[in-house]
């Protein structure tokens, strides 16, 4: 099933989360052929978890730490997320890579912790503008995937991947569906080549300036198995329209 996910990033208080979900749920009640996911800030997980219980909307986090517990001030473990009913977690978002200096090795450890603990990670990959301009898109994406999945190659069916070109995020300048399709196909070929038992269960999502005007075209593009929507997911009506259009 295709996956349409919101990434709220650092937006929405718990109170705003409550209002959002109250408005959003009736608007997507009849959507049965798409998986809908809300990746909310840590502080909204509790309230969102309560409100989404018994609905078909899944709950996701935007980050996780790889150690199971201990003296890691400010960090959140897989078990803590699981206990709140979280089923997905975004790992290696470009904002974590480029603002917070998250390295491929850290991302690899986070993926391992998620797989061990039964959370489905959404691994984010994508090239920066200068890399794209230097013709390095495929090389960058391949390197990010190979490093993130190092020693986890047998488990590729247990993760989803979001292709989010960094230059397209928050810029109003999305990739063309054709360019996205080429990278998505390339990602699927990598997964096949690193896991000979790969069953094709990884969904490759597109993210980067998805909005109501382009969501349908992306979702109807071959090899696009879902969307990861940032700013256009912050308004419940707008995100519900994207879900319904895609
Ligand atoms: O980073 C994104 C989703 O993870 C995309 O953000 P925008 O939809 O705001 O471009």
Automatic annotation (TrEMBL):
Transmembrane segments: none annotated. GO terms for molecular function: triose-phosphate isomerase activity. Its EC number is 5.3.1.1. It catalyses: D-glyceraldehyde 3-phosphate = dihydroxyacetone phosphate. It comes from the Bacteria. Belongs to the triosephosphate isomerase family. HAMAP family: TIM_B (MF_00147_B). Involved in the gluconeogenesis. Catalyzes stereospecifically the conversion of dihydroxyacetone phosphate (DHAP) to D-glyceraldehyde-3-phosphate (G3P). This is Triosephosphate isomerase. The gene is tpiA.
